[in-house]
Amino acid sequence: MNFNSIKAIYKFEMARALRTIMQSILAPVLSTSLYFIVFGAAIGTKISTIDSVSYGAFIVPGLIMLSVMTTSVNFAAFGIYLPKYNGSIFEIMSAPISAYEIVIGYAGAAVSKSILISLLILLTSTIFVDFYIKHPLLMLFLLILISITFSLFGFIVGIWATNFEKLQLIPLLIITPLVFLGGSFYSVKMLPELWQFVTKFNPIFYVINGFRWSFFGTADIAIIISFSFIIIFLFICLILIGLIFKTGYRIKG
Amino acid sequence: MISVKNITKVYSDNFYALSNISLDINRGEIFALLGPNGAGKTTLISCICGLIKQTKGLIKVSNFDTLKDYRKTRALIGLVPQEFPLDSYESVLNTVNFSRGLFGLKPDDRYIKNIIQSLKLWDKKNSSIITLSGGMKRRVLIAKALSHNPKILFLDEPTSGVDIQLRKEMWDMILQLKRNGVTVILTTHYIKEAETIADRIGIIDKGKLILVEQKENLINRFGKKSIIIEFGKKIYEIPNKIKDFDCFITNDNFCLVIKKLKNNKDINIKKMINIISELKIPVVDIKTEESSLEDIFLDIISERV
Ligand SMILES: Nc1ncnc2c1ncn2[C@@H]1O[C@H](COP(=O)(O)OP(=O)(O)OP(=O)(O)O)[C@@H](O)[C@H]1O
Ligand SMILES: [Mg+2]
């Protein structure tokens, strides 16, 4: 393991996150507050509780998941895409560093950023709603697993993308809709039967509900099923990355 | 130090960018790789540095295989690329420090400061790359390549876009690196550069290595000398005694130019003066000119077309 190299990439990425500190930190705080005002105040008056959890508290894990997934995917994808785009990837490719160390550096930074933002959202939420986390350790553990999974996925997107459009495509057209439709702001039980059935095919539905279970001890799906899904996604991403590097897929050339 | 054996690189559309190239680079020498645009210079360097994989062949750096032992070979190499692939918003100091870390070394502020100072960039250390001029960016790339104290330095057109004074300073720097035991491989379109600092020269064209020679040998073997005799009045005919030589009369009919290969002992000035004096035409001036590496390079390349 070449720690200095991984550290160099990690530090570089974290510096990039800090350069856009306004966007990175302020945006999630602001949008969380907006969600609470819009969803909590407007819809919350109509829906008082879901499984005896107040609506305001119910959407906290959903909000965190929305941020974690989009941040992880976007940041990791952009992180590896940028050097590809400006050519500075040449240096990474000529360095005595393995493909896996490159992944650890980029995905590691994306994970750190996501977790930081999650904690910020969690803090902001406490201003608006009262809630307490039933299984905080599990919550943290799931948070880390999910960040890793989506950061790896983002890395794959960044490697695959050959232009800015493709880079934006997957987060915008796949991740965001699936998160919204995956029950981040509502319980699937509130949907008509047909849509309940359709939702079962949305993989993100399982992730969100697993995470929500760690908060309240109740969710639309049993925790063991959710947890299995999260692990499966993580392994799919790991295998994909392994395949990308094994099949001699080069970042360039 | 570097041993390239039967390297072939085929790009997707069955295009042979390199065909069966074999080359040995000695420890501590300055090797200049010359060749027209698209000859394959950058491709060859990229194969050695690990940016691209050769289709066929074996490359060893310090006896390690560049594919199997890539960690060992790459740690020895610094690369200054031809383009400016830099992060526009990074500062000079950060980007150089990043390179050192990326190559697996602990930070060393004194060493990095030394490099940046010797490249005359210290007062720009906190500027972001985007605010630098082309020549400065080139030097940032050199600083990055030197940041991990490499034993081998590749310079892909290091002095293009660098002003004359700085170019001279850069040559001094390259020669200093050589004295410190660094092996330097450079490409350039500025043949004078190779002539000034290189120990050996390789010429590559259309993916084939045409020749590799010690610089002096190359100039002696292919170099031409011209003897130019200026007359006081017009001449119209080449004297019989030298008709068989490579010679011509200039357009204004005042000069006779005799060309010879440098190592051709049959033609010398003394002999020419004797022949000319027999003509009984007043001579105004006699000059000699030697071809530069540039002339030789052009001769070799144009012969192949
Ligand atoms: N990725 C690629 N795909 C296909 N062909 C390529 C690729 N990269 C380079 N080539 C081709 O390979 C040949 C050699 O290119 P290379 O960059 O090695 O030339 P060069 O000798 O460095 O030229 P220059 O003096 O212009 O820098 C060129 O014909 C080029 O078009
Ligand atoms: Mg080139």
Structure, explained:
The complex is a heterodimer of chains A (253) and B (305). Chain A is mainly alpha-helical and 253 residues long. Chain A has one domain (3-46, 55-247). Helix content of chain A is 77%, strand content 2%. Chain A has helices at residues 3-19, 21-43, 55-86, 89-94, 99-128, 136-160, 164-181, 193-199, 203-216, 223-246, and strands spanning 49-50, 53-54. A two-stranded antiparallel sheet of chain A has the order 1-2. Chain A is globular and about 60 Å long. The two termini of chain A are 26 Å apart. The relative contact order of chain A is 0.14. The radius of gyration of chain B is 24 Å and the shape is elongated. Chain B has 305 residues and is α/β, with parallel strands linked by helices. The longest helix of chain B is centred in the middle third of the chain and has 16 residues, at 164-179. Chain B has 2 domains: 2-219, Rossmann fold, CATH 3.40.50; 223-304, Alpha-Beta Plaits. In chain B, helix 3 (92-102) runs parallel beside helix 5 (134-146). Chains A and B meet through helix 1, helix 3 and helix 4 of A and helix 2 and helix 3 of B. The complex binds adenosine-5'-triphosphate and magnesium ion. The site of magnesium ion has 4 residues of chain B, from helix 1.
Strand percentage of chain A lies at under 5%
Please write the string of helix (H) and strand (E) elements of chain B. EEEHEEHEHHHEHEHEEHEEEHEH
Q: Determine the CATH topology of the largest domain in chain B.
A: Rossmann fold
Counting DSSP E segments of at least 2 residues, the number of strands of chain B comes to 14
How much strand content do the residues of chain B show?
25-35%
Largest interface: A-B, 29 and 33 residues
